[in-house]
Amino acid sequence: MDDVSKAEISKSAVDRMASFIRAHDLDIPEEDLAKCIGEMVENGDGDEQRTDVVCKGAVGKEILTINGNGSGAIMGALVTLGLEEATDESNRWTGTSSTHRVLKNRGKLLKKGQIIEEEIKGSWTNAASGKDIFVWSAKCSRPGYGSDYPVVKSRGLIPASAKDVVELIKDSDRVTDYNKMSIGRKDQHVLTKDQKSSMHCSESKCPKLGVVGEAKIMSSKNQPPLGKPLEFKTLFYARQLRSDDGVEMDGAAYVTVGRSVWETPEGTTDGSDNSTTRCEILLSVNLVREIVTEDGEKWCELTLVSHGVSPGIPVFVGKQLGLHAAENYIKDIRALFEQS
After folding, report:
1. Are 83 and 262 in contact (CB under 8 A)?
2. What is the pTM of this model?
3. Tens of pLDDT, residues 278-296
C-alpha cells in the first residue's frame, strides 16, 4: 500500500480487513466489484499479507472481503436485496393461520367495497394494524448457498417514532432489553465515519465508503435453553430511506441490513473459540416506516426479514423456530415501548 504507512495500519484495521462475507446473491456492478477484492498491506513483522480473495463461481463471485474501499458497494447491494424482500407482497409468501385469516377477511371487505375502519395503518399493501402481528415464510428465491432454507418475515405496529425504533435496533447496549436470549452484543469495528450525525441525514456520506448512515461489524451471543451459547458475527448497516428507494412511505423510514462475516475466505471461523456455536445469518432486515396519525401520536410499522442457515437442524423444525422468533421479535419491541 504505497500511500499508507505501517503506523497507520492498526491491528483493528487489519482484523477488520480480514473479515469475509458471502456475496453469491448480491448484485454488485463490475466496476464496484473490483473495489471489493482488497489490497496488499504489511503486518507488524514486515511480511506481506494478502487481504483479498480470488472470486469464484459461475456468477463471478462467492466471497468478498470487507476492506473499507469496496464494502460500500456490498452494503448497497444488501439494502437493495433487503428492501425487495421486505416489500414483496406477492403470493410467494405463506402466512401463518392467524395472518391468513386477518388478511383474507380484509380482502373480502375490500371486494365488497366496504371501508376498513382501523385507527392506525400504513397506506401500503398488507399493512399491519391494531395488535395483529403478521408472520409469513417463503422459499428462498435466490439460487446458490443457503437457498434450501426458508425466509421468514414478520410485521407489526410499534407505539414509537421510526427514529426511536431504529435507534433501539442499532444500539448494542440495549439488545438485552428486548431479546430475552441475548447475553450481549458488542460493536467490534465501526466502518463509517461520524456515523451518528449521518444516520438521520440522506446526504451526509462517509468519505471513505461513500455511503450514508452507520455501518459496523458486531459480535453477539444468545443463550438457548439447551446447549452452548450461539455466536453471531455480523456486518450491520443502517440508513434513512429516500424517495427514490422505491418504498411506499407515509413519513420518515429507515432500513437496517445484516449478514454474517467470517475469518477465512472459505466462509468459516478460525476455530479459536470452541465455547460457542457459530451461527450464520444470510440476510437480516428491519424496515421501519413512520405512520402519520391525525392526532400526531407517534406510531411506526416494523417489518423484519430473516434468512438463516442452520446445519444439523431439520428444515421444518428450523422454519417453525424462525416463525416463532420473528413474531416474538415484534412483540417484545412493542412491549418495550408500551412500558416506556
Report:
1. no
2. 0.86
3. 889 999 999 999 998 878 8
